[in-house]
Amino acid sequence: MAEHRIxxxxxxxxxxxxxxxxxxxxxxxxAALAPWVAPYPEQGRGVPNLEAMFAPPSxxxxxxxxxxxxxxxxxxxMGSRISLMISLVVVVLxxxxxxxxxxxxxxxxxxxxxxxxxxxxxxxxxxxxLLAMAIAAALGPxxxxxxxxxxxxxxxWYTRLVRGQSVSLRERPFVEAARATGVRDRNIILRHILxxxxxxxxxxxxxxxxxxxxxxxxxxxxxLGAQQPTPEWGLMVSSGRVYIFEQWWISGFPGLAIFAxxxxxxxVGDGLREALDxxxxxxxxx
Amino acid sequence: MEGMSLRRRExxxxxxxxTVLVLLGLTVLTFILxxxxxxxxxxxxxGPRARPEEVAKARVLLGLDKPLYVQYFIYLRDIFQGxxxxxxxxxxxxxxxxxLNFPNSLELIIASLAIALIIGLPLGIVSAxxxxxxxxxISRVVTxxxxxxxxxxxxxxxxLLFMRVLGILPLGGxxxxxxxxxxxxxTITGLDLIDSLLTGNWPAxxxxxxxxxxxxxxxxxxxxxxxxxMTRSTMLEVLGENYIRTAKAWGFSDRVITxxxxxKNAIGPTLTVVGLTFAYLITGTFYVETIFYWPGxxxxxxxxxxxxxxxxxxxxxxxxxxxxxxxxxxxxLLQAYLDPRVVLG
Lengths: 286, 345
Fold this sequence. Notes:
A: MetI-like fold; 14 helices; B: mainly alpha; MetI-like fold; 15 helices
């Protein structure tokens, strides 16, 4: 516990990561309070407002309006809910599948390890996004299917990560002691292996939330994820593409939102990695 | 030394066998995916006005009544004979379409990789050597931005800036249509940029260069970030090692230390990251080629995804997946050749 407190303080001293943390907090708050923060929540959900068609950024429409007159800012705010939901669902699913598998494989060793790792390697041999695209296309383009596709593409990373942790933890004295005392394997995994593998998983998950938001937007841009009139950011960039030269705000601001959020999670993830990596910590003290 | 070559050969063979297994696994994956698709291939084959008997006949014709594992072997046999199906959109064999589009994408990927290495490697090295200075901070922000920015958005911004605002670069395509007609490029390698250079076709070369620069830059952004970050962290690790300190104590010049010792030891992880870069470059072409109207495999695949052209989608998944696996195999073997520690570990 003390270790986590020190890590948190170190994170605070890193101004760039702090900036990321602020952006993430703003993002989460916006997503949580979306219908109350958005100036035109109905337009955010997709109701057209033709009198403001193609309105450029102004005081009434801070980010302008799209081809159906819908306020871009409201759509971005309502879309933040979707992005947050997608990324949380995918990452939680990926961890939920990957972590237990990895812990099991690493601790049990032998045949279990071989089989699990071969399957994991097979999935990892593919570029993740390509696999997600193929699965999303096969299941049929929809928001739900894109989440399933992304979760299937992402779980192997956690399996590999946790398996490595599990293998090294297996040799540690406290685990051997537990085994010698007769603690059942299942309880060892649950109470010793899993909690001690948490650190790198948290770092990975933090970065992954940003990566998944980027990936989900990419899938939607190709028409494989959310469908109209859902205000998903990737879909918004795609539909604004034809108007990029005159009405640049239709694609411009949603893309900026994707960038800002992905950047924030990467910065915080970097900061966490530096704060938690003992090698880096040592050099700081020197 | 004899023992070393033996270990290395063992490693090579094992790696190659594993790769073959992975490739077979890939075919299983794509087969399962094709099976999941919620549409009846027999019904698609005979069309919407067919009678039930005709659909049933089609099912036998297409081999859909056979058990699943037999269908898989038929699928495998077709792949080995080069039959990846026919595109629903272009009505041409998928393999032919891919072969047609391949040189264009290859050109774009090579250009992007070159840019990424030329910018990314020095950026990482300088950032490591001047750790915690303003140069380091700026480069870290730039590289993190590179891996966070959506390629499709960056491409649109580039178009906006260079075509609309500055009006200096073309909108898309590989070469100006008129230039392409008046000064046709003789095909030597299939890569227009190189071919026009080799044949001294300056109008075509200049036009090709203007057309490739924005898409290549856009595609390279993520790779620059990835390579710079990895180079920086590996260099930092290596620079902290004892033997570097010893070399410095002995009075070796900074340049000798950087290039002779540090860089050589950083080669391994850098090669690994170049492998990862390819994953991004391959899927990145889907977006960059679409935005810049570049006639390659990426835009072809993106169109297939949009129109749910499943023969193409499955074929592309298989081909690109295989390409990625083979590239990584090559890089792994290269790394094993250069760095004995890989084989021993």
